[in-house]
Each structure stands twice: as C-alpha cells, then as structure tokens.
C-alpha cells in the first residue's frame, strides 16, 4: 500500500527537471533511512529491495486469524487427547505398537515437512530439489553435487547437500519432540543411486553447547531399479558435533527426537538421486544391544 | 562409583536431613538443606549422559533458588522480629515467602515443572532418593512454618497440586514421569492439612514414602522405565507383577490397601473443619490419579502381550539384587490399613 510522499510534492513541482532521487534526498534525511533500511540477510547477487519500509510490512490480519484458529484447535486437542489415552492414543494402541510410519510422501503437503539445503548457502554450486514422483507416492530428492569451493578467499571445502525434517511444533509453537522410546530400529524404504548417504538424527538438548549435537549413521544405497529396505538400529548411531565425531560417546535417548535428515557429501561431483517411500521406526525385540561403541570412561575403576 | 565416595555422599545426605530436623536456628536449617542438595548432585550426575546432566543442572538451579529464598525470608524475619528461632512466630510475609520456597523445593504445583523432567533424567534408584529422602527436611520446616502461613495459600497449593498431578499424569507413558506426577499429587494431600492437623501430614508423608519406595524398587527390579515394558513383566516375575499392581492401587488410595489411610483421614478432617467444596475437589482429583494407576495395572495384569516373533522366553534365574527392602515395603504398602487405630494412637 503506497503512502503519499507529501514531502516531495512541492520540491518536485518546483524542480521538475531534476531526478526524483536527488529531489527526495534533498527533501528529508529520514527518507534515506526509510528507503535504504534493509533488515535480515541479503544473499550476494540478490537485487536490493527498493520498496519503502511500510510497503515491506504485511498489514493483513488473515494470517493472524488463521494462527489463532490453529492454536485454539491445538489447545482443544491437548485437553481432549488426555481422555483418549497417553499422547492422544488409546493405551492398547501404545502397548501393541511395534511399527510406526513417521514420514510418508503421499501428497504436496508432505513436502512441507522437509527443508532442503545445499552449499549454495556458502556460495557453492551444488543444486538440490525435492519433488513428488509419479502418482504422488514417493519423494524424489535429486540435483547435482559440485565440490568446487566458492571463490571467496576463505572457504576451502564445499560440496554437500542435505534434507532435514522440520522441528515438530505443538500448541503456541512449543517444540514437541517425537517420543520413540518404544522402538529401537529405524526402517526406511529407499531407492538410491549407489552413493553413500548419511542419516542424521537431532535430539533435544538442554545446554547451548548441545545444539549442534547430531547422531549419525551411514546409509549405503544400492543403486539400480530395485527398492531397498534399510533397518538401522538406533544403538548404531554415533554422536558428532558440528561435523566432528566426539570422543565421549553415548547412546541416543529416544524420548525426545527432534529431526531426521539425509546428507550427501562424498566428493563425487555429478548428479545424485534418492527416492524415499517412507521413513518409519519399528521395535525389533531380538536386538538387545544398547550401544554399539565403547563409552569413554573417565577415572576407570582399578 | 567408588564405594568410599558413595558412603561419603550418602552420609552427607543423612547429615543434611538430620541437621535440618535438629535445628532451631534458621541458618542451621538452611545449611542442612544445602548439604542435602549438594550431596545428591554427584549421585544424579554419575551416569555421565547429557540427559542426567540436564536433570542435575535443573535440580541444582531449582533447589538453589528455593534455598536462597529461604535464606532471604529468614534474614528478613530476623530483621523484623530480632529472632532466628524457627519456632518463634514468623511475620506473615516472611512465612509466605518461606512456604513458597519450600513448595518449590518439594515440587508442589505451581512450582512443579522441574520434577518430571528431573526424575526422567536420573536412574530409578536416584529417583527414589529424590522422591523420598529429599522431602523429609523441607517437610520438617513446612510443619513448623505452616501455622503462620495464610491458610488459603496452603489450600491453593494443595488443590493445584492434586489437580496438576492427576491431569499431568494422564498424558505420560514414561514410568518415572508418572511417579513424578504421583508425587506432586500426594504432596498436595499432605500440604492441605499441614495447618489443621500436622499429624495427618506426618501420617501421609510416612505412607507416601513407604508406597513410593515399593513402587520405585519394583520398577528397578523389573528394569522397567516405560509402560510397554510392564506388559511383558509377567513372563519374568509373575509374583512381583501381581504385587506391583497392588502397590499401584495403594498409591491410588483404594481400600483395603495402606494408601487409603491418609486420604480417608485427611478427607475426614477437612470435612469436619467445614471445607466441603475443597474436600469434594480433592476426592475428585484423586480419581484422576487413580485413572493412570489403573492404566498401569491394566497394562501389567489385564493384558496378555501378543507375540508372533520367535523370541526366547527369558530364563527365570535367582534374583541377584537384594529384595529385603522391596518385600518389606510391599507388605507395608498392602497390609497396614488394619493398623489405623494404632497409627492414630501413636501419632495423634
């Protein structure tokens, strides 16, 4: 919505041959601030946003009304769910549950639960796209990997792509982690391109130094036309922080799982493709391992 | 943990509580509370897992805040009245601050938010100490301060705790969190009559400690931390599963089990005092708690867990873990109701 530029009218009539910017600039110093104020990060190569400050603000209330409706609905669910059972499911269902499909791709809304990113954020040249494949039955993650580092003088390595699920939110946008303590295995049905992918699970942490903690394991895809059922026990996931595998390892606590993601960074430039049918969890009662790796023990008992 | 370190920590726990029991000076009582807090922290953190660290940090922050409030209130009281004596009548404002701080210490609603998360992050044995032993010292002070606290504050704390304890427990599947909400609800019952009949608070506290000890030791014996694990406990120890059901129903306050005793006497006292709406709300909120206890009982005993996989039934070996305390507390949890007249004679 354009506001009338009252300050410039008189000047523009009197000095009609002068360029508008020059007239406006000479009329008021605030105009320079209001027009040139840029908030947020502007990616290199993106054009400057030359709109006025009030033109960038969305004064429409419909988004707010939708948000209020959504949160009232969530509040009602949260109250009524408790009468049905723990976590909104009857107890019998909770006890008998041996498998649960967490993510499946059956329509465009399912893609909104995922965020894709690549090294373009740091100036790289990899490309990544996520779309539904034929008949809206699976998701196809595809693109091109390029490990040529950006020419900014400081980045030495590049070449990664990643797809990560969104953090689930509950009432009033609180974090609502998944409780997977009844399960012990991750079950995926995928069709890959033969590349070694990495699965990353983000767990809820309390301290700020835990925000980059991630539990990872490898996903070796077979390639070819046949689907692949992958079952990875959660005990196999090792902890890393900011990409570095930690010396002090411990098992993944499954009661607060936030996100799951797939990363590719195998330094093999070229196209990649990963088709996902579903991502689920299951309980394998024959798998009794608690943690696959040695736990670093300080002050060992002698 | 080295046995020597364990002995030092456990004896510090005992020392802290004993100091608070024996003290008549506010500073000494505060010191006992702080010793208790500091002694339990290494026990909580010994698992060396981020979740245990989180629980330890949250516990420390809450307890330190509450202890600071107690110190502030007692100092203000000493400034106002010239006395550090606990038994000396306190100024109503300082008594209110002290009661709020003690409520935070034990986990009464609305200062209960730390308790489920802290209990969830520690082992069952440490959770047992947190739920039982760590309540004794604050209650010793509550019983002395309650006389000078506005009565509506105690009633509000009690109602809030029982309702929150019942409502919050409905949504849980993790057993430690269920026991945390159970603890909150029971503390509400105890605090309700702290001013009217402190002896009933003591009876409720003793029965709560016995029942909670039985519950925690049972779960520790079964290595159960989730409701789903309880479903298959009948294959491993059928007798313990049957007794565990009775322990849970006792926690729910069903006659003829021991847990009925405090609820009955408290409701009787509250009704005699004329607080009928309060008594009604408390009785109804007990039904909320009973619902999730019954749910656990249902999961353990009234369901036969289906299994179509070819897994080996676990061998029933001789129990290596000591079971003396477990068996004693289970018997006390289930069979003490007929001793009500003796309890009344001794304590009232």
From TrEMBL, chain A:
Which GO cellular component does the record give, naming just one? mitochondrion
A single Pfam family it belongs to is CIA30
Give the residue spans that cross the bilayer.
none
What GO molecular function terms would the record report?
unfolded protein binding
Which residues belong to any copy of the NADH:ubiquinone oxidoreductase intermediate-associated protein domain? 103-276
Principal localisation: mitochondrion
Sorted alphabetically, the Gene Ontology BP terms of this entry are: mitochondrial electron transport, NADH to ubiquinone; mitochondrial respiratory chain complex I assembly
Q: Which domain of life is it from?
A: Eukaryota
Give the record's keywords alphabetically: Chaperone, Mitochondrion
Localization, per the record, is: Mitochondrion
Q: How does it assemble?
A: Part of the mitochondrial complex I assembly/MCIA complex that comprises at least the core subunits TMEM126B, NDUFAF1, ECSIT and ACAD9 and complement subunits such as COA1 and TMEM186. Interacts with ECSIT. Interacts with ACAD9. At early stages of complex I assembly, it is found in intermediate subcomplexes that contain different subunits including NDUFB6, NDUFA6, NDUFA9, NDUFS3, NDUFS7, ND1, ND2 and ND3. Interacts with TMEM70 and TMEM242.
- Return the similarity comment: Belongs to the CIA30 family.
Q: What does this protein do?
A: As part of the MCIA complex, involved in the assembly of the mitochondrial complex I.
- Protein name per Swiss-Prot or TrEMBL: Complex I intermediate-associated protein 30, mitochondrial
> Which species does this protein come from?
Clupea harengus (Atlantic herring)
UniProtKB/TrEMBL annotation, chain B:
Membrane-topology annotation of the record:
Multi-pass membrane protein
Give me the Gene Ontology terms describing cellular component. mitochondrial inner membrane
Signal sequence annotation:
1-18
What Enzyme Commission number does this protein have?
A: 7.1.1.2
Q: Which residues cross the membrane?
A: 57-80, 92-115, 152-171, 178-196, 202-219, 240-262, 274-294, 324-347
- Per the record, the domain of life is Eukaryota
Spell out the protein name for this chain. NADH-ubiquinone oxidoreductase chain 2
Organism field: Clupea harengus (Atlantic herring)
Q: Which gene encodes it?
A: ND2
